[in-house]
Amino acid sequence: xxxxxxxxxxxxxxxxxxxxxxxxxxxxxxxxxxxxxxxxxxxxxxxxxxxxxxxxxxxxxxxxxxxxxxxxxxxxxxxxxxxxxxxxxxxxxxxxxxxxxxxxxxxxxxxxxxxxxxxxxxxxxxxxxxxxxxxxxxxxxxxxxxxxxxxxxxxxxxxxxxxxxxxxxxxxxxxxxxxxxxxxxxxxxxxxxxxxxxxxxxxxxxxxxxxxxxxxxxxxxxxxxxxxxxxxxxxxxxxxxxxxxxxxxxxxxxxxxxxxxxxxxxxxxxxxxxxxxxxxxxxxxxxxxxx
Length: 291
What we know:
Largest sheet: 8 strands, antiparallel
Oligomer: single chain
Number of helices: 5
């Protein structure tokens, strides 16, 4: 018998680590692992939701703290009157109608106009002229200041850009005063906040080449404030085309609408207008202006 060829015995190859990692575990092991992961994933989800909720709550608390911080706006609070309006706060006298304007210096004062000019059914109950005090002599800070730094970054303001630059008016101030008689260079303008819809409109404030100033008449027509001018005591209300005199010597006169600025965050306006002006209050020491 001839020499036979020696054939080495076959040895199965040793699986590499990668090959071992691809080898599947038995099905029952995979099921057990999956079941064990369910509560863990649920816990992670609930914990994440709780943390997110707490973060949002903390953020809201921080906003509320900033909103309640004292900025120190000057002389913007109402001048509360405790005088009761007379029972005949609106009545006719011959061809005229008279509307109670308030109690001052120990007597009642009245608006007087042609009979039929005002539908009393459209008016709110009276609270008295200038109880809501318009700003007649604005006080500003420009390019920084104590109040400038204390206004919360998210505080809403409206900005008015003009030939002299830009001015920001905090909504918190406008809510208190509702009317600002403004002078931008040589241009008189009037800002009016309508509280029912929280919009601000800017009007020309010149008649026959002369400045006109308006105050709060102490009434509302729907959600719009009724104003009066300091020169003739005519009554004014916002109309489709502008601020319209609805009763009194200037009836039918219109102050042209200039703009209806959008509300923006103080931080956004400040970033775009670092050298602008910020309305921070009113100088009440000068009394009330006259036309």
